[in-house]
Amino acid sequence: MRTKEFQCGGHESALLDCSSSGSDRNTCSPGTAVGLTCSEPDAVRLVGGASRCRGTLEVKQGEWRPVSYYNSDWSLKRAAAACRESDCGSAVSVEEREESSRRSVWRIRSDCVESGSTLRECAASSSSSSFLQLTCSDSVRLVNGTSLCSGRLEVNTNQSTQRWSSVCEDDFDQQDAEVVCRELGCGAPSVLQGALYGEVEPPMRTKEFQCGGHESALLDCSSSGSDRNTCSPGTAVGLTCSEPDAVRLVGGASRCRGTLEVKHEGEWRPVSYYNSDWSLKRAAAACRESDCGSAVSVEREESSVRSVWGIRSDCVESGSTLRECAASGFSSSVLHLTCSGKPIKDMNE
Q1: Topology of the domain covering 247-347
Q2: What pTM was estimated for this model as a whole?
Q3: For residue 53, which of 13, 88, 230, 310 is within the disulfide window of CB 3.0 to 4.6 Å?
Q4: DSSP 17
Q5: CA-CA distance, 118 to 104, in Å (whole number)?
Q6: Is the separation of the CB atoms in 1 and 17 below 8 Å?
Q7: Widest CA span of the chain, in angstroms?
Q8: What angle do CA 153, 156, 159 make, to 5 degrees?
Q9: Under CATH, which number does the domain 140-241 receive?
Q10: What is the pLDDT of residues 9-51, one digit of tens each?
Q11: In the chain, where are the structural domains located?
C-alpha cells in the first residue's frame, strides 16, 4: 500500500504531477484502499434540431463527429441509449439525413451498445454521407420498464438544470397518463400503479398535474400552484401504456395471413426478408402482436425494390416489440406469414 499522502491542487494533468508528503504514514487500516468511480465524459449530443433533445446525433472520441446511419440497424430500442446518454427522455423517432458529400463519421456497433457499453466506447472511425437524426422527448421518460412503453415515470420541468424527478402517485391520474402515452408514441394507458417499476430515491415532483387528456405533451398541462407537503414511500408513478396498433398482415385470404407490415414513425411498410433468419419461432412474435395465434408458415415474397423495415432477430428474441426493433431499409424481398388465426389463449379453452 502506498502510504504517502497525495497533495493535488485539482488542476494537474496527471496524479504524479502532484506533490506528496515527505514521510510515510505509519498505518493504513485494512479495507481502506481507494475505490473510485468517475462519471462518463460529455461525449454525446444532438445538434441542429428545434431543441437540445432533437437533431443529428454526434459523439466525441477526441473530436466531435456525426454518427453514421448508412447500412445501419438503428431502431428505437438502440436509440434509447443515445437519448439516455444525452440526458433526454425516451426515444420517439429515428430518421436518416442525407448530405451531398461524404465526411468523417463514427460508426456505432449495435451489439456493443446493447451489451451496456457507452456510445463513445462503441465508436469506430468511418466516412459517410448518411447521418442519424434522432428525436427524444424533452421532458418525459419511462425508466426500468420491460419495453419503451412501460416504466417508472420521470419528468424534467426545468430544461436549464436537466433535473429529472419521479412523480407522486397522488398527483397523477388517468388523463395525465393518456397524455404521457401519446407523447411517447404509445397506445392508451393500461396500468397506472405506484412503485410498479421499483422504488425511487428523492427527488420527487410534488405538484399535481391537471391534464384534460387532449394535450400533446405533459408539460402543456397546467399544474397545482403549490407543493404537496408529503409524498409517501412506494408511491412513485409506474405506468404501462399499451403498444400501438403497429403490426398487420395484408393481402392474404384472412387477417392472419399475408405480407407482414409494421407501422413505425407514422408509416406502414412491409418487413424485409432479404438476408434474414426468419424462423417459425421468430415469426411467432409477429403472429402474437397481430393477435393471430401461433405461426404456421414463413415464406419469401418477391416484388420491386421499395422501402421496408428491417427487423433484427436478437432484438425481437430479447422480448422487444417489432416496432422497437425496426430499422429503415430497401428490399425487393418481403416476408409473407401464415398464422393459425386463433389467439393461443383461446386455443387452450
Answers
A1: Mac-2 Binding Protein (3.10.250)
A2: 0.68
A3: 88
A4: G
A5: 20
A6: no
A7: 87
A8: 160
A9: 3.10.250.10
A10: 888 778 888 887 766 666 677 777 777 766 555 789 999 998 8
A11: 44-136, 140-241, 247-347
